[in-house]
From TrEMBL:
Protein name, entry field: tRNA (guanine-N(7)-)-methyltransferase
Organism: Weissella thailandensis
Biological function: Catalyzes the formation of N(7)-methylguanine at position 46 (m7G46) in tRNA.
HAMAP family in the record: tRNA_methyltr_TrmB (MF_01057)
Top class in the EC scheme: transferase
Name of encoding gene: trmB
Catalytic activity: guanosine(46) in tRNA + S-adenosyl-L-methionine = N(7)-methylguanosine(46) in tRNA + S-adenosyl-L-homocysteine
Family according to the record: Belongs to the class I-like SAM-binding methyltransferase superfamily. TrmB family.
Length: 220
């Protein structure tokens, strides 16, 4: 869902380039991302970070991991960045990229990222828009290009059609990907909810009684 334009967003982003990195600089950092963080730690990426609830929650919960939230909408990335900047906790392990996540391998080198998160991505339900889905085969190739052997992808959605399509897409990717966990109603699984960090959409839909679908898998 696209947010309304916010007049303060552009000037705010221009004044916070250390936290929210623009697309051109992000490309130049390929292979050298550890240099923008205080500590060299495993790096995990959320593609389509929205207003930032998930990635900020992850950065707070796992200070031993470095996180980057990627987002193409100016209003959304500004909201996420400001939320992180104004959080009561200092988050030296969190950065954002204001740019297109279509080719994640444009920004990251092979093995530079240990895990990718795809949370409540646009389902693009029309067949002619299939190639825009973040679990389409061209996207899977870009994920494989940045993850090491054993690197994980974690996917969550409320959309049953996108969930089924995504399982099929990963399975059709062949022997290069192996699912390790599948949930048809995440919020009814106490064990899997123990470490769950919610997104804005997840909280909204789960509170309305909709099932949340999730799977985790790794590239061989």
């Amino acid at each position: 869902m696209r947010l309304r334009n916010k007049k303060w967003a552009q000037p705010w982003l221009e004044n916070h380039t250390n936290l929210v990195i623009d697309q051109d600089r992000a490309v130049s950092l390929k292979g050298n991302w550890q240099g923008v963080f205080e500590k060299e730690q495993p790096l995990q990426i959320e593609i389509g970070t929205g207003k930032g609830q998930f990635i900020i929650g992850m950065a707070k919960k796992y200070p031993e991991i470095n996180f980057i939230g990627m987002e193409i909408q100016e209003a959304a990335i500004a909201v996420a960045g400001r939320k992180a900047d104004e959080d009561e906790d200092t988050l030296p392990n969190l950065k954002f990229i204001y740019g297109d996540g279509a080719g994640v391998d444009t920004y990251f080198a092979k093995g530079e990222v240990s895990k990718l998160f795809l949370n409540f991505s646009d389902p693009w339900p029309k067949k002619r828009h299939e190639s825009r889905r973040l679990t389409y085969k061209s996207f899977l190739k870009s994920y494989q290009a940045v993850l090491p052997e054993g690197g994980e992808v974690e996917f969550k959605t409320d959309n049953r059609g996108l969930f089924e399509y995504s399982l099929y897409s990963f399975a059709n990717f062949g022997i290069h990907f192996e699912p390790t966990s599948i949930s048809l109603n995440l919020h009814e699984d106490d064990d899997k909810m123990a470490d769950n960090v919610e997104t804005e959409y997840e909280h909204k839909f789960a509170s309305q009684g909709y099932p949340i679908y999730k799977f985790v898998g790794s590239f061989k």
